[in-house]
Target: Oligopeptide ABC transporter, permease protein OppC
Amino acid sequence: MANTMNTLSSDAENFFIDALPGQERYVAPEEETPLRAVDSIDESAPPTSMWADAWRTLRKNPLFIISAILIVFIVVVALFPQLFTSNDPKYCTLDNSLAGPSAGHPLGFDKQGCDVYSRVIYGARTSISVGILTTLIVALVGGLIGAIAGFFGGWVDAILSRITDIFYAIPMLLGAIVVLQMFRTSTSIWKVVLVLALFGWVSIARIARSAVLEAKNLEFNTASTALGSTPMRNLFRHVIPNSLAPVIVIATTSLGSYIVSEATLSFLGIGLPSSVVSWGGDISTAQSLLRTNPEVLFYPSAALAVTVLAFIMMGDAVKDALDPKSRTA
Model:
């Protein structure tokens, strides 16, 4: 047996490693097992970050491409409505009440004799403005509160978490209705934005707190502290940037719900005043025409549905790119 083992050890083509009787393992020589092309690493390629990987994934996602095209188109309509219509959405005459499509008025007129097409075009500005502004405020306030609560912990976390729980117990739409009833004399779009943000920051705060709790215990934060970095510097320089992914996902997905909330409040007559052109206000005005002239109700409803769908699709695509574990396909 010893002679046999000596012979095997001198043979470069097969040998046994740490083998017991009956448990021998064959290991091929290294020169016979070259590194395959699929396993090779391009050492000359620059390193990529999580955001670069996410962008590479998004570019290949048809859901992202379709939603991005829709959102870009809707934003262009909101910013430059005069490129799509030359009619004044507030110019109404009862002579055209419920008149059908005509030259320059492809969607006809509503009950007040206003051009439906121009009101749909100009209504995009209101809905997009409310959705984007509310999302920005909610992400900033909720993300900051959640980050501070998760990073410092202790009594800071206890106080902020209890405040978050109080607001979380209040339904956003119900709370917005109660508060808006107190400020019905105000006609500013900021009234709706601030009220929606007041009750909408809670979800992002909870997500941000969880992300920061996970990020603050990672090695980079410990190393930064060991090098003499202050807690506030660690929070804003290292922890928050590495906790943004779930916050961005929730903010993108929630943007569509804020647009729907604004339309709902305007539909109920307590959101934006009738002097402001909005899809929710037009839907509210046209609800009495559902049986006789449903097309007057259909056009602003379809514009609202397409816009919300585009942002929801964008949110799903971003979620798949930034959080691969949550991918549905």
Notes: The longest helix spans residues 116-152.
